[in-house]
Every structure is written in C-alpha cells, then in structure tokens.
Amino acid sequence: xQLVESGGGLVQPGGSLRLSCQxxxxxxxxxxxxxxxxxxxxxxxxxxxxxNTGEWTNYRNSVKGRFTxxxxxxxxxxxxxxxxxxxxxxxxxxxxxxxxxxxxxxVTVSS
Length: 111
Prior knowledge:
The protein is mainly β and about 110 residues long.
C-alpha cells in the first residue's frame, strides 16, 4: 500500500510542471485524492482535492486558475499541473488518499 509522487524539480516563474502520484496496493477508485505542500519553516497546507470519480475538484484560493488537479482511474494515478508558478509555490508536494501519504516531491520555483 503506497503512494509515490514524481515530477518535481526546478521550474522558472511562469513555467509549468506536472506532478504525478502513482498508487498501488489499494482500491484507488474508492478515495478522494488530496495534494498538500509544505514550504520551509511553514505548516503543511492543502493545495487541491479531487473526488474519487474526478467529478469534483477544489483548490486553495492562491492556486485557483493556475493549478489543475486530475486523475486517471485506469492508471491508478493522480496529477497536479502547475502553471505559472511563483516563488511562493516552492515546497515539498505530497499526495494523500485515505490515511496514506506519499513521500513527497520537491518543487522549486526560481529563475
């Protein structure tokens, strides 16, 4: 039972990046997926969530219109598309389903 994030890295302000969260060992279709992030010295915060079918999504205000959460239930994978990121989006990004957390992937926004 695990979640594995990937796709993080260094991105320039205004660029784009797609994070992936690959699930294994449980019924992926049953659960909402939530992406969190944690910046250095700050608390972990919720970024976006998506329902088990993908019908419903929700975003924190600061990323609305720039980030897109999605999922492919045939691939047991969720995604977080980061468009036009800013330095304030820098942090470790985690996916969570039920009580399972991934290990996180680092996103650094810098020129």
